[in-house]
Design goal:
This is Segregation and condensation protein B. Residues 186-238 are annotated as: Disordered. The protein is mostly helical. Helix content is 43%, strand content 11%. It folds into 2 domains: 10-98, Arc Repressor Mutant, subunit A (Orthogonal Bundle), CATH 1.10.10.10; 109-198, Winged helix-like DNA-binding domain superfamily/Winged helix DNA-binding domain (Arc Repressor Mutant, subunit A, Orthogonal Bundle), CATH 1.10.10.10.
Length: 238
């Protein structure tokens, strides 16, 4: 007697995709995967290609309910325009111990200030960041680009065509944000601006630059940029 393998429910496929995905996965991408699989596999797989984005959103909700009911220490979070499986915060201490996350280089306060300015004002130039902080931001921005939290988004129309910078997908993932609209209110930026103004007498523009991260995370410094030219990005995300 031939045994027929039962085909999985849509929520099972969604759960498997979320488990395997290396980045947050949205319903549009899920639908594309279902269609591509149907084209390659054919047969019974074609039925899944008919799933709509609403069907997939419902499957995600169903999977979330099942996961919560199972009490497995995992949850589905909606971040960076998609979904991802992650551990529940209550289980974090054990995971950090296992991964030795406490030794991971952390952003310094000046780096967080620079990142906040770029996040709220993007796209913005290096000069705009420096006008707020009152200190050179060249190496700071390089460090944030190296950490893939900031990227070059294009060129400004200002004289000299300086680079414009904005935040990345990894920025959203790192801070657990669905979109930039989920950023906290402007108070953080105002506080950064206020603190920068208070420091200006002690830290005149063009002086020594703050470090962006622990030494282990810093890229090697390049030659200082000329006064008439803005510094290009170290790396750029697509």
């Amino acid at each position: 007697m031939n045994e027929h393998r039962a085909m999985p429910e849509l929520k099972e496929i969604v759960g498997a995709l979320l488990f395997a995905a290396r980045q947050p996965l949205g319903v549009k991408r899920m639908r594309r995967v279902l269609r591509e699989t149907a084209e390659v596999q054919g047969g019974v797989y074609a039925q899944y290609a008919e799933a709509t984005e609403r069907d997939l959103a419902g499957a995600v909700e169903s999977f979330v309910r099942d996961l919560e009911a199972a009490g497995l220490g995992l949850r589905v979070a909606e971040v960076a325009h998609g979904f991802r499986i992650e551990n529940r915060p209550e289980c974090g201490p054990w995971i950090r111990q296992m991964l030795d996350r406490n030794r991971t280089p952390k952003l310094t306060k000046p780096a967080l200030e620079t990142l906040a300015i770029i996040a709220y004002r993007q796209p913005c130039t290096r000069a705009e960041v420096e006008s707020v902080r009152g200190v050179s931001a060249d190496q700071m921005i390089r460090n944030l680009v190296e950490l893939q939290l900031v990227k070059a988004t294009g060129r400004s129309e200002l004289p000299g065509r300086p680079w414009l910078f904005g935040t990345t997908q990894k920025f959203l993932e790192h801070f657990g944000l669905k979109t930039l609209g989920d950023l906290p209110n402007m108070e953080e930026l105002r506080r950064a601006e206020r603190e920068a103004r208070e420091r200006k007498p002690q830290e005149p523009s063009g002086g020594a630059e703050d470090g962006g991260a622990d030494e282990a995370s810093r890229p090697a410094e390049s030659e200082p940029a000329g006064e008439q030219h803005d510094t290009g990005p170290v790396a750029r995300e697509d």
